[in-house]
Amino acid sequence: MTLIELTVVLLVLVGLAGLLIPFVTGFVGRTHDSTGTFNSAALDNNIQRYVAEKTSLPNRLEALVNVAAGSASATDPVCAAAAIDTVYCKMMEPNFFATAVADTGTPGPTTMRANSLAMAGITNVFYNDPDTDNATFASITGNPVTLNDGAAHTLAIVADVDQDGTVTPGAVDTQEHLAAAFERPIDTFDATCYDYVVMGIGDQSDLIGSTMSTAPVHFAQQGAMGPANKYNRFVAIFQVDKTNAAVAPVAGTNAGCAAGMEPAKFIGAAMAMGASAGHLWGTSHSLAHTWENIAAN
Questions:
Q1: pLDDT digit string, tens, across residues 48-90
Q2: Per the CB 3.0–4.6 Å rule, which of 39, 176, 202, 261 could disulfide with 216?
């Protein structure tokens, strides 16, 4: 090959690289969006099928709450300083969640939460290990805890958030958070009647061996947010009763509820990502985001 021919080939390759690099650099984002949407939709289907076949919600999910205080052996400083019974410190954005207590030994909302979950089949959960060296694949420790045993147990719930992922009550309240996450009207939800309990879908769940073979893992866009460092399981959101009183529905504001206790209800699966996501991402929001990115690129 002559020098001129080699130069021409190199120029062609440089030109192709200029065309391909912008396209290839979008692969990570597209893979993130498409796999997230697919896995979230599959989980919605698997959980709904489980409910239809077993007439109960799946048991043995992950509480997403620290089982103990973090120690010096924790693999990151956030977890080393983590307190017991707070949101699992290895969540990508812990501030998307708050905590609430379920306790059948104490009258009021705490009993309602535990009984509402138990009525729907959720009686046992695993708590999370702040000292683990793998945030996703070794996220739990110990045996499952029984929620309706008369003792107090902390649960993770959907929180009020601001768009930067910080908890700011009144900025984006729980109902607005859920409406954004699932692309549903705000009056589909009611934070006066219900808490929206969040649980991780891991391989210890009763779903495994029933409606699916293994629990999916979120495809992180950055190595620092990968499954070893941060919790990358998908989460399930459940509507859990917390009041015996009737609440009137108001169009465009809240769903309302009847008097008495209701069993917990599955709302949807979601991705729990970092602060830049703004909120949890359910299937519909993830799908909308995927198509927006495709249209933009």
A1: 999 999 999 999 999 999 999 998 777 788 899 999 999 999 9
A2: 39
